[in-house]
Amino acid sequence: MKRLIVPSVLILVGMAFCVAAEELEAVTLRFSQVTEVEGGSSEVLPYADPYVEPEFSSIKVEKVSLIDSSDIKSAYAFADAVMGPTVGLDFTELGAKKFAEVTKRSIGKRLAIIIDGKVISAPNIKDQITGGKAVISGKFSMDDADALARKINAGLPKTQL
């Protein structure tokens, strides 16, 4: 009987490992300025929000990345009482400084949050954001927020985790 149980346990553990590895496929993350300028410095990307009207299903952004994965220390999911399921971002020391400067220069403008080549959010920046933290909210479930946080973490440089 023991000989049958041990291989079954090993198979289940192996299957669980494969599922976990698949779920942690890293994403590319960047923040870029939304623009109206046509030309070589901008690109049109799909807007991934399924609730956006079809005529707004793409958005023009600067190709230059203002913030990227190297500026993020960690990502985590949490339930916000107002915004619902949310992904929190903690920036590195340098990333916090860059994000504060970017949001200061972007007051009154839109800043696109781009994951795997799709804009998931493009909020209007109303104030400079300091303190080294930011949030990504949207119309997703807690499981979606948790999966996104794990994928962002999987894409971070290993020295930051």
From TrEMBL:
It comes from Phragmitibacter flavus. The lineage of its organism: Bacteria, Pseudomonadati, Verrucomicrobiota, Verrucomicrobiia, Verrucomicrobiales. Coiled coil: none annotated. Pfam families: SecDF_P1_head (PF22599). InterPro entries: SecDF_P1_head (IPR054384). Residues 1-21 form the signal peptide. It comes from the Bacteria. Residues 57-155 form the SecDF P1 head subdomain domain. Keywords: Signal. This is SecDF P1 head subdomain domain-containing protein.
